[in-house]
Automatic annotation (TrEMBL):
Family (UniProt): Belongs to the FAD-binding monooxygenase family.
Protein name in UniProt: Cyclohexanone monooxygenase
Cofactor(s) of this protein: FAD
Record-linked Pfam families: Pyr_redox_3
InterPro entries per record: FAD-binding_Monooxygenases, FAD/NAD-bd_sf
Keywords: FAD, Flavoprotein, Monooxygenase, NADP, Oxidoreductase
Enzyme Commission designation: 1.14.13.22
GO MF: cyclohexanone monooxygenase activity
Length: 555
C-alpha cells in the first residue's frame, strides 16, 4: 500500500490527505528532502506543478540551456554510490543531461510513489489550534501536514515584462523559463530576444544559428567570460571520483560552493604584466572561476576595475563593429556584482550578418505591435519574441504559494518591505514551515546543490531533534530574525554586490519590488558554521515547544 493510500481519508466528496511533511517542488531540493524525510520514518509527499521531476531544469528548456557550474560538482554528494556510478559527458551539463540525472535519482531511490505531479499549490494556511498546515491545490485537493517544506527554487517565477500591446502580437512568444516541451523551430524566422542576462547570453548564440534574423534587445550590457565547454575528459572524471571526499569538503568550506582555489593575492599587489598574464590564463580556463583570479575582485572596487577593464578589452577585441562593441560594453556596474554569465560564442555572435543589436536603454521599447517590437527609434518586424527577462527571484516562488501564518498573516504582508528570514530557513510567525534556500541564505550566490543538501540535512536533523524530545512546534524568534536580516545587509555591504543597481539580487528587475539585498553574501562556509552552531545550541534563535503537552496541561 502506498503512503498516499495510507494517509487518505475520504470526507464526503473531498479527499483530505494527512502527512507528517509536505514538500513543495520536485527539483534538486524536493527530491533529496523527500528521501531524507523517508529515512527518518516520516510520511511525506512532494507536490509538484510540472508533469515531471526536475524543478528549474524541467521548465528552462530554451536553446543553449546549460548549467554554469561544472557537472562533477553540480550534483548530489549524499550518496557515494550515486556519485561513483553516474558518468557526466561534458564539462558543463546541458539541460537534458541534468534532467536525465534527476530522473535517474528519482528512480534509483524509488522516490516517484511519493511525488504527486501536476499538482500546483495555490494556498497554505497555518491552523494554530490544530498546530498544522492546511494546503490547497489548483485541482481542489486539501492536505494537512505538521511540517511544510518549500523546495520551490529561487528562480522559478517567470518575469514577463508588462509591455503594452503584447496580446496584439501576431507571431508567437515565449519566456525562457516556461519553454514548450516540444521545442520551438526558429528556422527561417525573424526572432527578437529581449534580455541579456545569463539566459539570454546562452540562448542568443544558439538561436542565431537557426533563425533567419535575430534582433537582440539589450537594456543593460553584461560582462561574460567564455565557458570553454568540452567533452568530459575520462581521466579527469576518474580523478574526481577518487577524490570526491576532498572535493565535497572543499565545496562546503568555500565561499560559494565551488571547489576551485581562490588566488590569495590581491589584484593590486602584483605588477601590471603579471596581472594581465593571470587574467589571460583565467580567460583561457574559462568559467565562473574567473572571479577567483585574485582574492579581492568582489570586495575591492579598485581591484575589480582591473578585471572589469580586462573583460571590456576582450569585448572590444572580439566584436568587429566598433559601435556594436561599444553598446555591448558594460560600464554601469562592476564585474560579478550581478550574477556573472559565462558563454559559448556570445560576443562573436554579433559579428554574424543575421544578428542586430538594439540598445533599448537609449531607445526604450514603446510597445509590441501585431508585427513586432517598436522602440522610440524604429519598428522591428518579428515572427517570434523570446523573453529572456529573468525571474521574480527568491521571493516570487514563495509568495505565489499564498502562505498565511499565525493570526492569518500573509507572507505577502509580512514581506511587503522585503523578505525577512532567520538563516533563510524560517520566518517568524510561520511555525513548522522550512524554506530550502530561502532569502537570507547563500542560495543563488553559491553552487545551488551544495546549499540545498546542507539545508535538507539541517531541516531533517531539526525534525529528528524535535521528535526525539516530543516537540511539535518550531518557530524562528523575531529577535533572531531581526539580527539575521541586519547581518545579511552587513555581509552584502562588505562586498561590491550592492553596487549593481539593476541586479535581481536586489529585486531591481521587477517593477515595484522592494529593493533589498536578498541572498547571504557572507560565504557558504561561514554560513554553514552559523547554522551548525545554532543547532548545536539546541536550535538557538528558534522557539521549540510541545503544543500537545501545553494543551494537555491547560485542559
Ligand atoms: P536575469 O539575469 O535577470 O536577466 C534578465 C535580462 O532581461 C536582463 O538583461 C534584464 O535587463 C532584461 N530585462 C528584464 N526586464 C526587462 C524589460 N522589462 N525590458 C527589457 N529588458 C528586460 O535573468 P536570466 O534568466 O538571464 O538569469 C537568471 C539566472 O538564471 C542566472 O543568473 C542563473 O543563475 C540562472 P537589466 O539587467 O535588468 O537591465
Amino acid at each position: 500500500m502506498s503512503s498516499l493510500q495510507q494517509n487518505t481519508r475520504e470526507t464526503g466528496a473531498e479527499s483530505v490527505r494527512e502527512f507528517d511533511a509536505i514538500v513543495v517542488g520536485a527539483g534538486f531540493a524536493g527530491l533529496y528532502q523527500l528521501l531524507s524525510l523517508r529515512e527518518l520514518g516520516l510520511s511525506a509527499r512532494v507536490l509538484e506543478a510540472g508533469d515531471g521531476v526536475g524543478g528549474t531544469w524541467y521548465w528552462n528548456r530554451y536553446p543553449g540551456a546549460r548549467c554554469d557550474s561544472e557537472s562533477y560538482y553540480y550534483s548530489y554528494s549524499f550518496s557515494d554510490e550515486l556519485q561513483q556510478e553516474w558518468e557526466w559527458t561534458e564539462r558543463y551539463p546541458e539541460q537534458p543531461e541534468i534532467m536525465r540525472y534527476l530522473n535517474y535519482v528519482a528512480d534509483k531511490f524509488d522516490l516517484r510513489p511519493d511525488i504527486q505531479l501536476e499538482t500546483r499549490v495555490t494556498e497554505a494556511r497555518f491552523d494554530e489550534d490544530a498546530n498544522r498546515w492546511e494546503i490547497r491545490t489548483e485541482g481542489g485537493e486539501r492536505f494537512f501536514t505538521q511540517f511544510l517544506i518549500t523546495a520551490v527554487g529561487c528562480l522559478s517565477a517567470a518575469n514577463v515584462p508588462d509591455i503594452k500591446g503584447l496580446e496584439s502580437f501576431e507571431g508567437d512568444w515565449h519566456h525562457t523559463g516556461g519553454w514548450p516541451h516540444e521545442g520551438v523551430d526558429f528556422t527561417g524566422k525573424r526572432v527578437g530576444v529581449v534580455g541579456t542576462g545569463s539566459t539570454g547570453i546562452q540562448a542568443i548564440p544558439a538561436i542565431a544559428e537557426q533563425a533567419a534574423h535575430l534582433t537582440v534587445f539589450q537594456r543593460t550590457a553584461n560582462y561574460s567570460v567564455p565557458a570553454r565547454n568540452a567533452p568530459m575528459d575520462p581521466e579527469f572524471q576518474e580523478e574526481v571520483k577518487e577524490n570526491y571526499g576532498e572535493i565535497r569538503r572543499k565545496q562546503r568550506e568555500s565561499i560559494n560552493g565551488h571547489p576551485f582555489d581562490i588566488n590569495e593575492q590581491s589584484a593590486l599587489e602584483v605588477p601590471e604584466e603579471e596581472r594581465q598574464a593571470t587574467y589571460e590564463a583565467a580567460w583561457e580556463t574559462g568559467g565562473l572561476q574567473f572571479r577567483a583570479a585574485f582574492s579581492d575582485l568582489v570586495v575591492n572596487k579598485e581591484a575589480n576595475d582591473t578585471a572589469s577593464e580586462f573583460i571590456r578589452d576582450k569585448i572590444r577585441d572580439t566584436v568587429e563593429d566598433p559601435e556594436t562593441a561599444e553598446k555591448l560594453t558594460p560600464y554601469d556596474h562592476p564585474f560579478a556584482s550581478k550574477r556573472p554569465p559565462i558563454d559559448t560564442g556570445y560576443f562573436e555572435t554579433f559579428n554574424r550578418d543575421n544578428v542586430t543589436l538594439v540598445d533599448i536603454k537609449s531607445s526604450p521599447i514603446e510597445e509590441i505591435t501585431p508585427k513586432g517590437i517598436r522602440t522610440t527609434d524604429a519598428e522591428y518586424e518579428l515572427d517570434s519574441i523570446v523573453f529572456a527577462t529573468g525571474f521574480d527571484a527568491l521571493t516570487g516562488p514563495l509568495l505565489n504559494l499564498n502562505i498565511r501564518g499565525k493570526g492569518g498573516l500573509s507572507l505577502k504582508e509580512k514581506w511587503s518591505d522585503g523578505p525577512r528570514m532567520y538563516l533563510g530557513l524560517q520566518t517568524a510567525g510561520f511555525p513548522n514551515m522550512f524554506t530550502i534556500t530561502g532569502p537570507g541564505s547563500p542560495s543563488v550566490l553559491t553552487n545551488m546543490p551544495t546549499n540545498i543538501e546542507q539545508h535538507v540535512e539541517w531541516i531533517s536533523d531539526c525534525i529528528q531533534y524535535m521528535r526525539e524530545r516530543g516537540l511539535d512546534h518550531i518557530e524562528a524568534t523575531v529577535d533572531a530574525e531581526e539580527a539575521w536580516v541586519e547581518h545579511v545587509n552587513e555581509a552584502a555591504d562588505r562586498t561590491l554586490l550592492p553596487l549593481a543597481k539593476s541586479s535581481w539580487y536586489l529585486g531591481a528587475n521587477v517593477p515595484g519590488k522592494p529593493r533589498v539585498f536578498m541572498p547571504y553574501a557572507g560565504g557558504l562556509g561561514t554560513y554553514i558554521q552559523k547554522c551548525d552552531h545554532a543547532a548545536a545550541k539546541g536550535y538557538e534563535g528558534f522557539d521549540l515547544t510541545s503544543r500537545a503537552v501545553a494543551a494537555e496541561r491547560q485542559g
